[in-house]
Amino acid sequence: MLADTIEYGEWKTGMRTEGLVYSAGSFGSKACSVKEQHLSSGLIILIPYKLDKEYPQIIEDLKNSKKCLITS
């Protein structure tokens, strides 16, 4: 789809802005990905999910890894 946009832009303006179109498409994709990650992280924080009752080993592993990061 981006290739068609490049071809149309060249036909319309006479200039081939291939790099600009591809970089804008890549930037838009990354911006949406970051927005999605922030939204999902915010939802996880807002929803009262009791991880320690369902998966106590995960909580223990996180505590141990935190100690390991602090001491090293």
Can you tell me about this structure?
This protein is mostly helical and 72 residues long. It has one domain (2-71). The protein is 85% helix and 0% strand. The protein has four helices and no strands. It has helices at 2-13, 18-46, 51-54, 56-71. Helix 1 crosses helix 2. The mean pLDDT is 78.
What is the topology?
Elements: H1 2-13, H2 18-46, H3 51-54, H4 56-71
Low-confidence stretches: none
* Major beta sheet summary: none
Assembly annotation: single chain
Output the helix-strand order.
HHHH
End-to-end distance, in Å? Answer: 49 Å
Q: What is the share of helical residues?
A: over 70%
Provide tags for this entry.
single chain, 72 residues, rod-shaped
Quick summary of this structure?
By secondary structure, the chain is mainly alpha-helical.
